[in-house]
Amino acid sequence: MNVTDGIILVDKPAGMTSHDVVDYIRRALKIKRVGHTGILDPNATGLMVVLVGKGTLLSNFLTGMSKRYVSRFVFGRETDTFDADGTVVASSSPGKISSGDFEKLLDNYRGEVEQIVPPFSAVKRNGIASHRLARRGEKISPKHKVVRIEGIKIIDFDWPEVSLDIRCQSGTYVRSIAHQIGRTLGCGGYLKNLRRLGVGPFQVTAATTLEEISGSKNITDILKPLKNALPAAPMIDIKPQYYGAVLNGRPLYKKYISGGNYAGDGGVLSLLMGPENKVLALANLNMHWRVLNKLGPSEIMGSYIRVIDEGRLRSE
After folding, report:
1. Which residues, 6+ apart, have CB-to-CB distance to 64 below 8 Å?
2. Has 41 been annotated as catalytic?
3. Residues 5, 41, 83, 237: which is the catalytic one?
4. What is the mean pLDDT of the chain?
5. What is the pLDDT of residues 285-315, one digit of tens each?
6. Which of 206, 214, 237, 280 is in the most buried spot, having the most CB atoms within 10 Å?
7. 165 — pLDDT class (breaks 50, 70, 90)
8. Residue 172 — very low, low, confident or very high, per pLDDT cuts 50/70/90?
9. Cβ atoms of 285 and 266 closer than 8 Å
10. 138 Cβ partners below 8 Å, 6+ apart?
C-alpha cells in the first residue's frame, strides 16, 4: 500500500482497546505514525477518528470534540465499574416507572451536570491511574467533574432497560449517567452497552471496518485528506512561488495568497493550501474578510500555528 497522510474513520468492534485499533492500523498500513483523537472503552463500539502520518500533527485541534452515543442502561443492579464489565455490588427491585416519569428525570441530566468519576477510569490519583488502584482493592474516594450534556433522549423504553441517544462534551462518562440515575431511583443502574455515533462533524455511517482497511488495495479509498479533518476551517490558497516561504515560517504576507474561501472576523484558524489541495500549514488570520481584498501585498495577514507540509515538499 502506498500510504500518504490523512485521517481514517474507523468503526471499532467490541473487545478491542483504542490502542489495539491503532496497533492494528500500524501493522495493516506498515506505518508507525498513527494516533487517535479520543479513547473508546474496550467493549464499546463505534466511531474512532484515527490520524495517519502527518495527520497526527492535527491531534491538538481534533481532541475535545463533542461526542454522540447510543447507550443501553439496565436498572436494578449496580456494578463497581458502572458498566456490564464490573462486579455486581448491589441489587434492588427496579419497581415500575413510566417512560414519562423517566423522561422528567432526564431533565437533571441536560446542560451542566456534575458527574461521579468511575473508580475504574484513567483519572490519576497521586500519579497512578484510578483503575490500577481499584484493581488492587484500594479504597478510592469519589471524585466529581462537571460536564455538559447537550442532549439526551429516550429511543427505546423497555423497563428496567432503557436506550438513550446522548450528545455530550468530550470527557463525559456515559456509564456515570447510568450509575447516577440508578442512585436517584434507589435501585442501582449500569451501562449495558455503548456505541459512538459521532465525533464532532464525523459520523460512524462514513466509517470503515478494520477488515476493510486490511483488505484494501488502494488506501486512498479510505484515507481522507487533511483538509477534511477540519471542515469548518477556511482554506487559503498559496501561490506556488511562496510554498517554501510558508514552510519556512516566513511572515505571512498578503502577496502569498492567491484565493480561498476565507470569511472570518480575524483570529480564525485557517488552512494554508498548497499543490493538489494539500495542507501546507495552519494559521490564524488576523484580518476581517471584508478588508482582505483592500490590503496591500506587504501586509502581514496573521501568524502560523503549525507547519504541516502534507504534500511533503521539503525533505524530512
Report:
1. 170, 171
2. yes
3. 41
4. 89
5. 887 667 777 788 888 888 999 999 998 888 6
6. 280
7. very high
8. very high
9. yes
10. none
Tens digit of each residue's pLDDT (9 = 90 or more) over 235-292 = 999 999 999 999 999 999 999 999 877 776 777 889 999 999 999 999 998 876 677 7
Return d(Cα 160, Cα 303) in angstroms, integer: 55
pLDDT at residue 2, as a whole number: 46
Which residue segments constitute the domains of the chain, with CATH numbers given? 6-65+201-226 (3.30.2350.10), 67-199 (3.30.2350.10), 233-307 (2.30.130.10)
